[in-house]
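Schema walk-through. Below, the input block comes first and the output block second. Nothing else is stored per chain. Lengths vary across the set, and this one has 174 residues.
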Amino acid sequence: MRKVCAVLAVALVASLVFSSSTSAGLFGRLVLVDCEYTVKVPVCEEREGTYKVCEWVKDTKVVDVCVDRGYWEDYEVEVPACSCRPCFGLFRKHCCGCECTTTVTCKRWVPNIVTEQKEVTCCKRVVVEKPYTYKAVVGWDTEIRHGKKWVYVPKCKPCCYCCPCGPAQDCGCN
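--- output ---
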């Protein structure tokens, strides 16, 4: 917005100071002239390159797995069947003297470790190079272009020798 306002203000001042492009204004005049100008133009070429990407790939492997093929086994244990209180726990030597026992059935695990081969699927990271194209500036060319530009021609005073036609000539620049 600021640039648009600045351009409008310059155009307004130029139109007030210079009445037209061919006639002299208050201080001088603007003349539209043909001109040549040189510009530098980049020379580009398309190149190819690669970049690295990490991708996940599924992989199946055969691995050795230890499996417990054990089983539960029943076994019997004789335990004291005394009902007096001191017989239970750590103080069995203070038992009431009864010698009665009972048989209790317990279970225990009997391990049987077996090595088996199983196929498992896992993901692993793989670095892959992918191609791409890009434009690269390899140099600069100079071009001559044609256009028009406004040139300010100051107004000459009748007493000065700045006019190429000479002093006090009626050439239209005064």
